Amino acid sequence: MSETVTSTQVHGGGATADQIVSVDSATNQHIQVRINRGEAGEIEGRWEEFTVPLAKGMVVLDTVLWVQAHQANDLAARWNCKAAKCGSCSAEINGKPRLMCKTRVEDFNLAEPILIQPLQTFKRIKDLVTDVSWNYRINATIKPFTPRQDREWKWFQHDADRAQEMRKCIECFLCQDVCHVLRYQTEEKPQFAGPRYFVRTAGLDFHPMDGAERLEQLADEHGLGLCNITYCCSEVCPEHIAITHNAIIPEKERVVDEFHDPVKKFIRKIQKKK
Amino acid sequence: MKQTLTAHVGAPGFGKTERRDAWWLEPLLVVLGFATFVAYSTWAAFQVSNYSYGPYLSPFFSPYIRPDWWPANWSTAFFVLWIPGGFRASCYYYRRAYWRSLFASPSACAVSEPKRDYTGETGTIARWLPILHRWFLYLSLIVLVWLWIDVVKAFDFDGHFGIGVGTLVMLINVALLSFFTLGCHALRSLVGGNARCFSCAPGGNARYGMWSFVSKLTQRHKLWAWFSLFSVGLTDLYIRLCAMGVLHDIRIV
């Protein structure tokens, strides 16, 4: 089935569903997508299957938008830039947390329906849209950037590299979604900030001119010790931030450095005696 | 900061997922890899002979320690093996591997786990892992120096310089062990990672250089962890088979 362009409306620079399935890009193939739908607070939801015309280069978000435009006008889905930079279209596709706009349909076995679910860690608002506001409340608890007053404001690129990696985060919350500490604890979540906020904290802690101390907050209030370094957060990050390698483990090691390193303890004792 | 946040995921149960790929393959391979190594190394550690051949010494028995009071029919491997054993057991990569494969916590990303009373690395034993890792790092660096000394000795054939296949086997093994040990996350923090600003810290350029070097190895920590694990076992096996007369060590030089 091929469609002609019926709309010139462009959302955030991306093409509309009809533009994607255009005369130029349409193939004769159709694919099945199975979307998990539900109202606010529904946990299991219901699966609805749709047949969508396949277009070359199609991403999963295109299939959702096509369904929205042609078969289920009340289907709720959050998206904005369609360029993998706004972090809005996070979902679980064939069971894996991904950005819908960055996941190509052709990467899947098209003989089977593609499963599209909302993020499983957060409460559903409607269909594929979840309430991620809890994350912003955690964010507000982090000690903000506190400029040092005791040093000249001069540093080099290699001093800023580590902090800059953390600043690539687009807040898609895929890492929060996949993190099993948050994901499989029902009702009451543990006292745990989650990988996104270890990234933010590391971005501040590795800023060459930041002077705030966040180790106690990390260890206690933000529950760094609950992380058992499964690397799942790193695996799903669309910005390829090495979350475990470059944020979580360095922060865990800073805790050891500060409080438990045997050689450092010995040196500190000698320095105190002097 | 108690949080009430009802998730979509209902009551947990092992292996609940919508994933369609072979998510179970990696944990299965890890279990098989661990089981193979643990079975062989335990057997080898209990052996009281065939751990050396000519100038070669099995890495399981290095540094070679045999006090006078130690019974002749008891293996000396246990003086040493607790150090690399502890270093690996507390290593960040191995922790990832066994949390996933042995404790199913979780077995794979977005795959549900069997129990709910999760404490992560705050439990009675697990909370010591990062701390113990730092201690075992210092001890492992000492053992690593000894292993390099063994490699130097492996070039000495009765007072003459020589190279045998065993020399190369030992050299490759210690190189892989060095890549693994020097790529340790704790070392990465120690040499420079704990500095907020490299150029502002005392010795900042040197620390940045060391941190960059260690970081390159750390990025491949998983690879070095597995390669070095099997190279240690295979080096012991090679020396043991030579000592048993099953293999003939070829002199290259």
Describe the structure.
- Chain A has helices at residues 17-20, 60-70, 133-140, 157-166, 174-178, 180-183, 195-205, 215-219, 232-236, 243-259, 262-273, and strands at 26-37, 46-55, 90-93, 96-99, 114-117, 123-126, 129-131, 188-189.
- Chain A has 274 residues and is α+β, with helices and mostly antiparallel strands.
- Chain A folds into two domains: 17-131, Ubiquitin-like (UB roll) (Roll); 133-263, Alpha-helical ferredoxin (Fumarate Reductase Iron-sulfur Protein, Chain B, domain 2, Orthogonal Bundle), CATH 1.10.1060.
- In chain A, the strands form two sheets. A five-stranded mixed β-sheet of chain A has the order 2-1-5-3-4. A two-stranded antiparallel ribbon of chain A has the order 6-7.
- In chain A, helix 4 (157-166) runs antiparallel to helix 7 and helix 7 (195-205) packs across helix 10 (243-259).
- The longest helix of chain A has 17 residues, at 243-259.
- Chain A is elongated, with a radius of gyration of 23 Å.
- The model of chain A is unreliable at 1-14 (pLDDT under 50).
- By secondary structure, chain B is mainly α.
- Chain B has one domain (25-62, 75-243).
- In chain B, 53% of the residues lie in helices and 4% in strands.
- Chain B contains eight helices and five strands.
- In chain B, the strands form two sheets. A two-stranded antiparallel sheet of chain B has the order 2-3. A two-stranded antiparallel ribbon of chain B has the order 4-5.
- Residues 1-8 of chain B have low confidence and may be disordered.
- Chains A and B meet through helix 6, strand 8, helix 9 and helix 10 of A and strand 1, helix 3, helix 4 and helix 6 of B.
- Strand 8 of chain A pairs antiparallel with strand 1 of chain B, so a sheet runs across the interface.
